[in-house]
Write a structure and sequence with these properties.
This protein is mostly beta strands and 64 residues long. It has one domain. Helices cover 0% and strands 27% of the residues. The chain has strands at 2-5, 18-24, 43-48.
């Protein structure tokens, strides 16, 4: 998982908030174990960060 902090939008509803990016394989299974190292990431799943997350309304519809 990668945690991204949003910056530079001059919008207090998103600046400083977090988004979680989780890699998934072609079957849609999160790639979170050492066995997944070296495999191709088929898609990224986006979610609000667990702490100080971006409001769900800001995320694309398929990520809410």
């Amino acid at each position: 998982m990668i945690l991204v902090t949003v910056q530079g939008f001059s919008d207090p509803s998103v600046d400083g908030k977090t988004i979680r990016l989780t890699p998934s394989n072609a079957a849609g299974t999160p790639m979170s174990s050492p066995a997944n190292l070296g495999q191709t990431v088929a898609r990224w799943r986006y979610r609000s960060g667990a702490t100080n997350g971006v409001p769900a309304r800001i995320l694309p519809a398929d990520c809410r």
